[in-house]
Amino acid sequence: MGSSTAYHLAKSRLQAAGDNAVLVIERDPTYKRASSSLSAGGIRQQFSLKENILMGMYGRDFMRTASHLLTSEHRNNQQMNNPVDVQFRECGYLFLTSTQQGKQRMMANHQLQTQLGCDILLLDPDQLRAKFGSWLNVDDIVMGSYGRSGEGWVDPWILIQGMKNKAMEMGVTYVHGKLVGATRDETNGRVTSIQVQLLTPTSISLSSTNNVVTYHVNNIVNAAGPQASTVMDILAGGSNLLRYPLPVRARKRCVFYFHCSASDGVPPSTTPLTIDATCPVYFRPEGHSSNTFVCGVSPSALQDPDCSDERELDVVQHEFFDGVIWPALYNRVPAFGEIKVKSSWAGFYEYNTVDQNAIIGFHPELRNVLLVNGFSGHGLMQSPAAGRAAAELLDNEGTFQTLDLSIFGFERFMEGGTPVFEEGIV
């Protein structure tokens, strides 16, 4: 989110020949714990809200043209010999439902998706057998929704680095540091400066106290993902000082990489990212081998507490795989009775506790703090559209220019506001 906002902001300011003073404070430039780099990299448009569908469509187009958008324009740059390839594999998404209620929801969503121009097919059990029956058990399935094109997955690490490098080429400055304080003008509710502890020594830090430097700001973008609420507390001067706190918390998600040793009925490497809505367990191929996959599951509410301690990410919850994921995989793909987990990892999930949808807009109390938070598992796929939207708000007096995303404004969490719910949460 931060690099996408910086990229779109720098791009629009270069075209307008304006001031390109964009600074990104990045506390971990390795992105070892970053939610995006630890994600499954999914790209889709199969949502129920028009705005989410359109954001997904822009993300699709961005990934398709990323090599053009993100590769360096400087001919003497080594990157010219290595164009940015985010490895967008348009193998599709396949949602499966075994209930009549789920079928009706798929049909309603499909009508809107196709009206907006998405290439989505509804498949009945016979059609599912004809297309995927060599590996898929559909005995209890009543309908599938299949993204025939424009959906799939990318390499998150390449996307992150591509956006960052291109933003830097256009004049964006990245600073390895951590927000530790802020100064506010209490008369107008604006943050006037921030204090940043530099984590990599520089000439600035050598002349500062405890490596803490002050930056005077016009606007601030909170793109801190699972740590977004902590950032808001610092900007506000302490916890519990905001009348309207940011409803974003860190949750833990685990991803498993496994090998299938069955000789028959193994899903091919072109298999779509498949989601069994009855669980919901998902899996997709990993790499170009026909026998390796990644998978995961969204835990139930009782098994999904807040989790802000990064040390917790060192512990992968294998009970989810043994008790929930594997039985569901085996039921849906009989060949998955012969699998072995080769590796696993855990990452933070940026959870909007109110309605699990994006928050894009200025905060009512800190009036120059733009929120780009709460994407609840859709951050990577929606990052191009969210970054573009944030850049538009910053440079156009708080108004959207290309896609009206005002439905995701913070006002919905205030008195009289209405939460915005999405049926396509995974």
Describe it for me?
The protein has 426 residues and is of the alpha+beta class. It folds into 2 domains: 1-88 and 152-247 and 353-426, FAD/NAD(P)-binding domain, CATH 3.50.50; 105-151 and 251-349, D-Amino Acid Oxidase, subunit A, domain 2 (D-Amino Acid Oxidase, Chain A, domain 2, 2-Layer Sandwich). Helices cover 27% and strands 24% of the residues. The chain contains 10 helices and 17 strands. The longest helix is centred in the C-terminal third of the chain and has 17 residues, at 379-395.
Q: Provide the gyration radius in Å.
A: 22 Å
CATH superfamily of the largest domain: FAD/NAD(P)-binding domain
Taking the sheet with the most strands, its summary is:
8 strands, mixed
**Which CATH class of the largest domain is shown?**
Alpha Beta
Proportion in helices: 25-40%
Architecture (CATH level 2) name of the largest domain: 3-Layer(bba) Sandwich
- Beta content comes to 15-25%
Give the tally of structural domains: 2
Q: Counting H and I runs of at least 4 residues, what is the number of helices?
A: 10
Strand neighbour order, sheet with most strands? 4-5-3-12-13-14-11-15
Distance between the termini: 20 Å
- Report the order of strands and helices: HEEHHEHEHEEHEEHEEHEEEEHEEEH
Features:
426 residues; alpha+beta; FAD/NAD(P)-binding domain; D-Amino Acid Oxidase, Chain A, domain 2; 2 domains; 27% helix
